[in-house]
Design a protein that fits this description.
Elements: H1 7-24, E1 31-39, H2 47-59, E2 66-70, E3 73-77, H3 81-94, E4 99-107, H4 111-115, E5 122-123, H5 125-128, E6 130-137, H6 139-160, E7 167-170, E8 174-178, H7 182-195, E9 199-204, E10 209-214, H8 216-241, E11 247-251, E12 255-261, H9 266-274, E13 278-283, H10 290-294, E14 302-306, E15 312-316, E16 321-322, E17 326-333, E18 339-345, H11 347-358, E19 364-378, E20 384-397, E21 405-409, H12 414-426, E22 433-441, H13 443-496, E23 501-502, H14 504-533, H15 538-570, H16 573-605
Parallel strand pairs: 5-23
Antiparallel strand pairs: 1-3, 1-4, 2-3, 6-12, 6-22, 7-8, 8-10, 9-10, 11-12, 13-16, 13-19, 14-15, 17-18, 18-21, 19-20
Helix pairs in contact: 1-13, 6-8, 13-14, 13-16, 14-15, 14-16, 15-16
Domain Protein translocase subunit SecDF P1: 227-286
Domain Protein export membrane protein SecD/SecF C-terminal: 433-594
Family: Belongs to the SecD/SecF family. SecD subfamily.
Length: 615
Amino acid sequence: MLNKSPLWKTLLVIFVVAIGALYASPNLYGEDPAVQISGLRGVEADATTLDTIKSQLDQQQVGFSSIALEQGQVLVRFKNTENQLKARDLLDDSLGGKYSVALNLTPATPEWLAGIGGTPMKRGLDLSGGVSFTMEVNMNEAIVKAQDGMVGDFRSDLRNEKIRYRSVKKSTNGIDIQFRNAEDLAQATSYLKRRNRDLLFTENEETLTLSATMSEQKLKEIREYALQQNITIIRNRVNELGVAEPLVQRQGQKNIIIELPGVQDTAKAKEILNATATIEFRMVDQESDLGNALNGRVPASSQLLYDRDGRPTLVKKRIMLTGDHIVDAGSSFDEYSRPQVNITLDSPGGSKFSNATKNNIGKPMATVFIEYKPTERKDSEGNTIFEKHEEIISVATIQARLGKSFRITGAGSQQEAHNLALLLRAGALIAPIQIVEERTVGPSLGAENVELGFQAIVGGFALVFIFMLIYYRAFGVVANLALGANLILIVGVMSMIPGATLTLPGMAGIVLTVGMAVDANVLIFERIREELREGKSVQQAIHQGYDAAFSTILDANITTLIAAIILYAVGTGPIKGFAITLSIGIVTSMFTAIVGTRTVVNAVWGGKRLDKLSI
């Protein structure tokens, strides 16, 4: 019999819509302002931490709705943002550097619903408020750092092979190595060419110099590596800040976009993200006279550095270890209640540091803090020139052979030790970065965007609803039911996908899918009208209307879906948000407009002897 849907298809439609409605329902409960307290590396929040936080809030009479220990984090919910901000300031001061205290908006979803994975849609920066940075990687500094590494590698390689040389130094385009005789030059050329196939070597027999320059492929690799590693390191730092749903992604050849929803302390965010700090360990030069160095006669193998109090120290240029080998760092106090940073190295770093310290027991070693700071000067390509600032954190005597784990002191305050530990464990940036654009969205503006976007969706839905009801009468009611189910499914699917984030352009995508969903029904209903005008029976007209319009609807939606996928692949934040909602809306509208309405039409009019239709 024409236009009779099997029971399984009807149940399938009901099941899909019901599941969509279930997972869309968490968005009705809203969000509570909250403070999230989580332990930093090596520290985990526990029941004692929870009791401490609770007693401090009670003592300061800061009211809260609930407090709970969840997955090693303490979550405190509040009824208003005023108490939330008070609690954040109080806990940030009292908990020291062992915990990260972050503002958060926590879903007020019932426990039974959260237990089955029900969560509200995640909102982007433009809807929840926060800060966005566009940061530019200084590629020239990346190349300079690569040259510095090559200088050290060449010296080590030549010493290991017992090839004598006069000097190894940087040149404009690469590295120049000068030798004592032609035999050493030939031996070094043969050896270094085998070990460095991505470099171009040129011999000058008159000056006994071997020049190594980077190929274009090598330069490209350095720039790509600098960008990718900086993105990875910035992601680590963002995670240390405790930001929920951050976005860190590349833009073009040297830019990085960072979006931090909910962040209000932009000064702290910029300090952590923009820092290029690392440390180096060097031996103190005890053979040379410090007085001569202060008068300008610094030995070629040494460097005069100062600590934060202006005290000078003469240190060797040779680096024993750099911060690149640090895999973990945490702040604490030593036996004299002074702040210290506990450092753990990777296996190569531990081996290297062990070999460097075994022959220097009883001698002083300096810990050098290095930071690149932007200047007002620009290079020929318009990039900001960074200056290297070096400061001695501490000078300590090596008491024993050091390995993978050790500690350093002299960081100043506990907060400075905490920030240094954060930067060291997150990693030093491969190349300095600078903020070229900063955009802040306040919480009130985010809430206003949500309200305006919601009004646009409701307004668009209402206008389409009225039009379909007037123009297609009873079949318009069916189309409107499908339209409502489509919105429910979009919200439900967006809530179920972990990586999906609703943005203001994403709301525009939902409004667009409302029009696209009803467009499919218009094609079907107009085809049914044509069949009726040609004298077909009601049942034949319904059957032919759906069958004939299907291919047209499918073609139109597939081409739009391809465009949405391309937008998602090549676009950034807001464009991706639009592409996600558009893609989901295309799939759900196909289901509701074709399968959903066909099921309802078959249930109401299918298999009956009818002379006319309310269409």
